[in-house]
Every structure is written in C-alpha cells, then in structure tokens.
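PROTEIN DESIGN WORKSHEET
SECTION A - STRUCTURE
LENGTH: 440
TOKENS:
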C-alpha cells in the first residue's frame, strides 16, 4: 500500500479542499502518512494569497524536494492557489515537482497520483468551476468541530486581492447541499460548525438572486447534535437586519461575528473598492451591538495600502480606539501582481506599512487586555480542546473564541473532562492573551 503525505497550507477553505481530496485517496486504497518522511508521495495544497503565504508554499516545496533528493519520498504533487496562480512556472522553476494541478483538478487527485507513480509529469488545469464544492471528507480537525464551506470564489473584486483571479467568481452550494453535509457532520459527532466562504454574507446570490445566509442558518439550527454555529468572513455591506435577527433569535448561532473591515478611512476604502468610512462603520458596529449586546466582533485591517498617508492612518487608529473590537488582526499591505492596487501610485514603503501595523496591534493589545480582565468573575460556556500539562488541567475555548485564530482558556477541574466536552467555567484570571478558569 502506497502512502500519501498531505500538507495543507493557508485558510480553512483550503483545508476543506484538502479533506475532500484525502477522502478520495483513502477510498482509492492509499494510506495517509502521518508525516512526510513516511510517505511515498506528498501532496502540497498551497496558498498563494500574499507574499508570506507564497513563500511558505515555496519553502514547503523545496523542503519536500530535499526529501525526494535524499530518496525519502518519490513524488511531489502541488495543487491549490499557488498552483492555480503560477501554473507551469512551478514545473519550470522547480523540476523536483512531478505534478501541478489547478484547483479545478482537485477532483482528479487519485488519477494524478496514479499517473505520477507511473512516471508521468502532470500539468492539469481544468476550469476553476470544476473545483468540487461538496462530497465526503476525511476531517483533519478534532471530531467535535468542523468547517462547512458554503461557497467558493469571490465576486467582490477588492483592488488588493488576487482571490477572484485565482478562485474565480463566487459559486454557492444549494441550501439543501449545505444542510445535508451539516447533518452528516453532526452524525459524526461534530458539535461546533464553523460556516466559511470568501464572503459568507453573499452566500446564495448567484443561485437565488439574493443573499440566503439567514435562511441557511434557520435550517442549520434545526439539526440535532449541533451546539454552536459560528460565522466567519462576513462582509460589512451585507450584514442585514434579517441576518442580525436570525443570529439574535437562535441560540445555536453564536453572537460572534467575523467582520473583516480592512480600513476605516473613506478614501482608502474607496481605493480598495470597498464602501463606507469611519462614521458609517461606527454606526454599523453600534447597530450590531444594539441587536446583540454581548456580541464578540473580530476584524482585520490592512496598513500601508497605496495612498495611505498619516491622516488616513490616524483615521484608522482613531476608529480602532472608538470601536473597541473584541478580536483584531492587522497586516501590512502586500503588493500582489495582477491586482489593481499593485499598479496604483503612492505605494507606501513596506517598513512604514509594517510599523503602522505594529502600532495598531499594540493599541489593540491594551483594548483586548481590558476586555479579558472584565471577564474575571463571569461564567462562560467553554469547549475542552485538549489536556493540559498538569493533572486536572485542560485547554479549551470560550464561545467567544474560534479555533486556531483566537484565544484559549486554561480550565482547572476537580472532575475528569474529555476533549469535546462543553462545560461552564468561572473565569478567575488572565495569562497574557488567554484566560484561566474553574469548571463548575
């Protein structure tokens, strides 16, 4: 039995693509290796969104190339966003690679593996729309939580972003398809369902002529076994009253909204092909909190976008202070070839962009620390994710924290707990970014 190693890079959407391919390989009789060193062939599902992600993908390819040269592995297959974006450049520049597949070829992963084992070099680029959006998955997450990808591609066309070029326009799954998969996941023991797409709030526009995320959520909450439903990647323009009411009126849908805003200065937002300004975004935050008083809002920003002068940066900094976000990430602008922003004048020095990002993160650290300290003495519903280092110690998350991106809580318990358990925890302290609490 030949063993296949799998390296999945980038976002959760890519992770779901990997899980679909893993299931196909297992059903075809391949064994999934626990490490690259144990594999006969390695599949690298790459990200190609920004420079740092591209470099990570290239580093992984080179590392696997070294293992191949040493005779540890025999074949290297590259797929995902980097493969889709740079196509045959990868085979030309990296002769150690045996196959490069565009995202539309993911459904042909078994055939590609067979061909490279037969000695062929494969370059396969079917239409992007051929990317499988659903199917059976071999979950790579813990058994109590999983992602539900409800669409792929993006039609927003922000000027800094290469995703529409790489993944194509948004393509939604039907409500029935999403619900069927969610039921299957719940039957397997999934209790926390994390709904993802490039823009979840635009879900359904292409199929139904209008956004249908609220309608989908109303179906998902009916599924027995699901306890938490978490939304990621919500676009501010489409955070409708109907959606906020649906979140408010259904306990399973967490009052957690991931709302990537990217900036707050109106001129910069317009240059990004986004809408609004500091005042309209503050009004949106106020509206969300009026519907959901205990809401946790996560956002991301880009510093150093072309044309961002000191006044624009000050507008962003002031906005961060006024909005008091619960979770925040900030990234220096990455000049991506082929995007409209890459051709803009007034490019900002990368060191200045990075420094501004550091200022925002320092600013947010103080806000976040205050919010964490405010939780001391409260009781929060938590999920246990792992065992701690000491007896009676466990690692988990509050309902306010998404896995792998947000904070953790160290849970002390006098009774045995098991990963996947949901427990009420009294918060007793703070340790830098994380909480400490006692299970009740």
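SECTION B - SEQUENCE
RESIDUE ASSIGNMENT:
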């Amino acid at each position: 039995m030949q063993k296949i190693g799998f390296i999945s890079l980038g976002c959760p959407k890519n992770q779901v693509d990997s899980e679909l391919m893993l299931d196909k390989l297992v059903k075809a009789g391949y064994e999934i290796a626990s490490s690259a060193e144990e594999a006969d062939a390695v599949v690298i599902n790459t990200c190609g969104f920004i420079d740092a992600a591209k470099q990570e993908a290239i580093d992984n390819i080179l590392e696997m190339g070294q293992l191949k040269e040493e005779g540890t592995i025999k074949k290297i297959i590259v797929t995902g966003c980097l493969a889709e974006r740079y196509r045959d450049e990868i085979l030309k520049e990296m002769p150690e690679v045996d196959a490069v597949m565009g995202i539309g070829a993911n459904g042909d992963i078994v055939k590609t593996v067979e061909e490279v084992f037969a000695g062929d070099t494969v370059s396969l680029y079917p239409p992007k729309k051929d990317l499988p959006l659903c199917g059976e998955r071999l979950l790579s997450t813990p058994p109590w939580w999983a992602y539900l990808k409800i669409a792929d591609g993006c039609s927003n066309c922000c000027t800094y972003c290469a995703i529409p070029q790489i993944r194509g326009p948004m393509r939604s799954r039907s409500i029935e398809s999403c619900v069927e998969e969610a039921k299957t996941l719940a039957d397997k023991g999934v209790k926390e369902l994390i709904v993802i797409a490039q823009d979840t709030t635009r879900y359904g526009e292409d199929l139904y002529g209008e956004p249908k995320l609220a309608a989908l959520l109303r179906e998902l909450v009916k599924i027995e076994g699901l306890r938490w439903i978490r939304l990621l990647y919500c676009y501010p323009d489409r955070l409708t009253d109907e959606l906020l009411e649906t979140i408010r009126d259904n306990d399973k849908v967490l009052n957690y909204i991931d709302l990537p805003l990217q900036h707050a200065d109106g001129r910069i937002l317009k240059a990004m092909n986004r809408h609004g300004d500091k005042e309209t975004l503050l009004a949106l935050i106020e509206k969300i909190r009026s519907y959901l008083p205990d809401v946790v809002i996560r956002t991301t920003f880009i510093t150093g976008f072309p044309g961002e002068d000191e006044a624009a940066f000050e507008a962003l900094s002031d906005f961060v202070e006024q909005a008091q976000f619960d979770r925040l990430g900030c990234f220096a602008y990455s000049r991506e070839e082929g995007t409209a922003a890459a051709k803009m004048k007034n490019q900002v020095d990368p060191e200045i962009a990075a420094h501004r990002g550091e200022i925002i993160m320092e600013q947010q650290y103080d806000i976040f620390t205050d919010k964490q300290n405010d939780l001391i003495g409260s009781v929060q519903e938590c999920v246990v994710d792992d065992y701690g280092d000491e007896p009676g110690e466990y690692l988990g998350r509050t309902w306010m924290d998404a896995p792998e991106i947000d904070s953790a809580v160290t849970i002390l318990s006098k009774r045995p707990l098991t990963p996947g358990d949901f427990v009420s925890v009294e918060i007793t302290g703070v340790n830098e970014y994380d909480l400490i609490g006692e299970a009740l």
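SECTION C - NOTES
The first helix runs from residue 12 to 27.
Residues 186 and 394 are 24 Å apart (CA to CA).
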